[in-house]
Design brief:
The structure holds 2 protein chains of 2 kinds. Chain A is mostly helical. In chain A, 72% of the residues lie in helices and 0% in strands. The two termini of chain A are 25 Å apart. In chain B, helix 5 packs parallel to helix 6 and helix 10 runs parallel beside helix 11. Classes of the chains: A mainly alpha, B alpha/beta.
């Protein structure tokens, strides 16, 4: 993929390396601080000590609960909150954000449309419906953590293929593509609400599935999401060269040696699967996939070999930020994170929509 | 660079290739062999099959019938990657939407040389630098492609295609969006690069003069068929231009190079006012392309023109439709039926002047001449006599007899288009007692 020397067009490697170091350091700090944010306030110093003790397996920082006898009972509680609830939530936010970011970048590339996003195209809703069906019927008692993504796969892939068919069809302009996606998303949301509300135990789940929440996070879900996304994400990122050429149109791409239809199909399937993994554990979270690739393009250029992994990183950070903003703005609450991604994403979407009128017309497939 | 190509195999070979888009013909039993090293220009009106030919060569479409071969290998049996090693493509325009640096963009052309994990080598980067200086963009390697001007962009696309290092290069109207200076510059570079790299070039070119100037060989297509093929100096003629494009033009020859060039006739000033004596329509009887230059010239001169009775899809019919002329139409190849003849009769009755183009007369359109017998006495009628009717009478002499009747009835013969125009003007000035030549067309 990326060789270290990408030509003199790039900034010198040393400055890129320090930028990378700053990014990793900043990211680690963000994760740690975010893990102290939640519906219950955690004091900064003991909280950090607990985190570092747990993360390092007791090597780096001695057990704060042992050296702080006066706080003993609350210290154990704090440990449970930080280690068993907040940190898994933050890690899930990172993973889901990365998944949505990389799916968004892949979809924008495939549809050659800067407004493509798994949420706006209905793929998130499809995946969520699949997972929610499983959840409502209480299959989750039988190792549902693994089955949630599998059911989400079905819903997301079906929606993704439908969108591809629309894009390829006679009416496959940008407008029809987006409007079809929005229509499908609304239909699926209605079906989802029906399934959830008709079920006597489902009512309380509606907000979670429809607005996206991180509240179901635990280490097991994190592990499954990590494993699935590592594989899917790597596969998506390997399509950077094909996406670069597909931007020049399927014919040019094919004349240069890209099997355009196969690459497009593979990318839509992979993006749908990646989205499914994300929404299976969180419900519908919008706009992460829309915003992230644009930020990467602005920072690092339009080469998809950079945009794809970059969108995963930015998406991860974006979703953690959205979670933090929710807790900071409404202390003591546990509001769905999808509310806050929408607050950031919708103005951005409108900006892109109106800016696009000044650019060259964007084609569908 | 061609893997395993036998030296004598043509770079591109089409054998009996037919392509249809529903009812429309893309290519019809098309044969073509392009020798390695040739610079071949494809010319023809819009929809004549140039782009279809290229798309077949690139494997973008599979012909209904026939075979397409690249250096002896059937295109359909080559993988997409193998094709990319043999043929590269410069499209009319490329939607550059991502602002990648030019050097990286040109490296995209190296796609087929790499797997998913290995990046471009130092050698390839050096090649790209060389390519960029060949197309005159050496100092722009680090600029984003969106900052390039139209001419630079087209050269960048050329560099990207050349980076594929293929022995065959296809260009589809590469100069369509360029001004004349950049057109010459681009084709000059293509030709020079093709010579130094021994690349075979097949270019679809709208501009016949550019094609004549740069190509070794000119292939003219019309409605999916090859209608002319050879060195530009042999292929280009006024007759060809009228027949294929329906354009009247003068053929001249560059005094220094001997390259032929065409000077199309200029459009005339505004059409005559509806109340002027010149407003009455001139009806042209034609068929098979014989009327096309007359229709074009009379319309250019500002006359209102009608035509008939023509067969659908006939060259004259297409020209008439392109010019928006009222015409009487019959289905292809059918004898002129009652409806078409009645329609034709109305047009003949309305005409102030009737012109009979030197069309080939067969049983299917003999009625066109026969129906004139009722009009020659009433309406001034001009018969074009070159080429002579003897050469275009396919009715066992019946047409010749009718023709003689027309001459006997008052029709006059004229030699050629200029003579026809003069005769029409004289006729209208004589008969129109109105304001005379002040409002008359000058063409």
């Amino acid at each position: 993929m990326q060789s270290p020397d990408r030509g003199p067009a790039r900034r010198p490697w040393s400055s890129r390396r320090s930028a990378l170091a700053a990014l990793v350091g900043g990211g680690a700090l963000l994760v740690l601080l975010s893990a102290l944010l939640g519906s219950v306030p955690i004091p900064l110093v003991p909280g950090l000590e607990i985190l570092l003790h747990q993360i390092s397996g007791g090597l780096l920082v001695p057990d704060p609960c042992a050296v702080l006898p006066p706080h003993a009972p609350s210290c154990a509680t704090l440990t449970v909150i930080v280690w068993e609830i907040y940190l898994p939530e933050v890690v899930l936010a990172l993973l889901v954000g990365a998944a949505l970011g990389v799916s968004g970048a892949a979809l924008q590339g495939v549809f050659r449309n800067p407004l493509a996003d798994p949420f706006l195209l209905g793929i998130s809703s499809g995946g969520t419906l699949g997972a929610a069906v499983l959840y409502v019927f209480h299959f989750e008692e039988a190792r549902a953590d693994l089955f949630l993504p599998l059911f989400a796969f079905v819903g997301a892939v079906a929606t993704g293929l439908l969108i591809l068919a629309v894009a390829r069809g006679r009416y496959g302009s940008v407008e029809t593509l987006l409007l079809t996606g929005v229509a499908i998303a609304n239909l699926l949301t209605a079906v989802l609400a029906l399934v959830l509300l008709y079920n006597p135990f489902g009512g309380e789940q509606v907000t979670f599935w429809l607005l996206g929440g991180l509240g179901q996070a635990d280490w097991e879900k994190d592990g499954i999401a990590f494993g699935a996304l590592l594989i899917l994400g790597t596969l998506v990122v390997l399509y950077g060269r094909e996406l670069n050429l597909l931007q020049l149109g399927p014919d040019v791409a094919q004349s240069a040696g890209v099997d355009a239809s196969r690459a497009r199909l593979a990318l839509i399937l992979l993006a749908s699967l990646t989205t499914a993994v994300a929404v299976a554990f969180t419900g519908v979270i919008g706009f992460v996939g829309l915003v992230s690739p644009h930020i990467v393009r602005r920072l690092a250029g339009s080469d998809y070999r950079v945009v794809l992994p970059g969108s995963a990183v930015v998406g991860a950070v974006f979703l953690v930020f959205a979670r933090d903003v929710g807790y900071l703005a409404f202390p003591g609450s546990a509001l769905p994170v999808g509310i806050f991604t929408a607050f950031a994403g919708v103005p951005f979407f409108l900006y892109l929509l109106y800016r696009q009128r000044r650019l060259a017309p964007m084609g569908a497939l | 660079m061609s893997p395993g190509a036998d030296p004598p195999a043509p770079a591109l070979e089409l054998e009996g290739v037919s392509v249809r888009y529903g009812e429309r013909i893309g290519l019809e039993s098309f044969d073509l062999a392009v020798a390695p090293g040739e610079f071949l220009a494809l010319c023809g009106p819009n929809g004549s099959g140039k782009t279809t030919l290229m798309r077949a060569a690139l494997g973008f479409l599979s012909p209904e019938r026939g075979r397409v071969r690249l250096f002896g290998h059937a295109v359909s049996e080559l993988s997409i990657r193998e094709r990319a090693h043999r043929v590269a493509w410069v499209p009319q325009e490329e939607p550059l939407r991502e602002d990648v640096p030019l050097g990286e963009y040109v490296l995209y052309g190296r796609y087929a040389f790499h797997g998913p994990l290995d990046g471009p080598t130092e050698e390839e980067r050096a090649q790209v630098e060389g390519l960029l200086s060949d197309v005159g963009l050496a100092d722009r390697a680090h600029d984003g492609v969106l900052s390039l001007s139209g001419g630079e962009r087209q050269r960048a696309i050329l560099a990207r295609a050349l980076a594929q290092a293929t022995p065959l290069l296809l260009l589809d109207e590469p100069t369509a969006h360029l001004d004349i200076g950049h057109q010459l510059d681009l084709l000059d570079r293509v030709r020079a690069l093709a010579r130094t790299r021994r690349v075979t070039v097949v270019a679809a070119l709208h501009d016949l003069n550019l094609a004549a100037r740069f190509a070794d060989r000119l292939v003219v297509l019309s409605r999916g068929r090859r209608v002319a093929d050879g060195p530009p100096s042999e292929v280009l003629s006024e007759e060809l231009l009228a027949r294929v494009w329906g354009v009247s033009a003068d053929l001249a020859r560059d005094a220094r190079t001997g390259v032929p060039y065409l000077v199309p006739h200029l459009l005339a000033p505004s059409p005559p006012r509806a109340d002027s004596p010149f407003a009455g329509p001139i009806h042209v009887v034609g068929g098979g392309g014989a009327a096309a230059p007359i229709l074009r010239r009379l319309t250019d001169a500002g006359y209102r023109v009608t035509t008939g009775a023509l067969h659908l899809l006939d060259t004259d019919e297409e020209v008439a439709e392109a010019l928006g002329l009222p015409s009487a139409i019959e289905s292809p190849f059918a004898p002129l039926g009652a409806a078409a003849r009645a329609q034709h009769e109305r047009l003949l009755a309305a005409a102030r002047v009737i012109v009979v183009a030197p069309f080939a007369v067969g049983p299917a359109n003999l009625a066109n001449l026969e129906d004139l017998r009722a009009h020659v006495g009433k309406t001034p009628t001009f018969l074009l006599r070159t080429p002579p009717l003897a050469a275009r009478d396919f009715t066992e002499g019946r047409a010749t007899r009718v023709y003689a009747e027309l001459l006997g009835g008052g029709a006059r013969e004229v030699d050629d288009l200029p003579a026809l125009l003069a005769a029409i003007r004289a006729e209208l000035e004589r008969s129109g007692a109105g304001p005379g030549s002040a409002t008359g067309p000058t063409g």
